[in-house]
User: Which sequence fits this backbone?
């Protein structure tokens, strides 16, 4: 694997079991996430586009979509989090587009974004 690209960070990877553990831990922050979402949603409407960078399990992006009706995209470098977030959005009955990718090269076809949010990124 001499030609494998290096990780942009050197810390512990957040894939698999670590991502599932993190999702369970941050689920406990529900009230703080709802308060943050209410403050942000005040600036959005159903025609708005919002991007959350590093949404992890997607709790904030899901709450933003629920409160504002905006089209919300979550962009995470972690494939496990993308899967967890998609499942959480499905369970919540909310449409949020969770994508795998990095913020330095946005894989988003429509760059007309009204607000970009990042709650926590490692």
Assistant:
């Amino acid at each position: 694997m001499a030609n494998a690209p290096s990780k942009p960070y050197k810390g512990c990877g957040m894939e698999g079991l670590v991502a599932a553990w993190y999702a369970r831990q941050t689920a406990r922050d529900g009230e703080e996430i709802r308060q943050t979402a209410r403050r942000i949603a005040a600036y959005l409407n159903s025609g708005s586009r919002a991007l959350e960078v590093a949404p992890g399990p997607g709790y904030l992006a899901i709450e933003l979509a629920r409160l504002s009706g905006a089209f919300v995209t979550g962009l995470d470098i972690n494939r496990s989090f993308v899967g967890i977030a998609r499942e959480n959005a499905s369970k919540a009955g909310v449409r949020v587009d969770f994508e795998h990718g990095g913020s330095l090269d946005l894989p988003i076809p429509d760059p007309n974004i009204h607000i970009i949010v990042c709650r926590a990124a490692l």
User: Anything to note?
Assistant: The chain has one domain: 30-117. Strands lie at 49-53, 71-76, 96-100, 115-117. DSSP finds four helices and four strands in the chain. The radius of gyration is 14 Å.
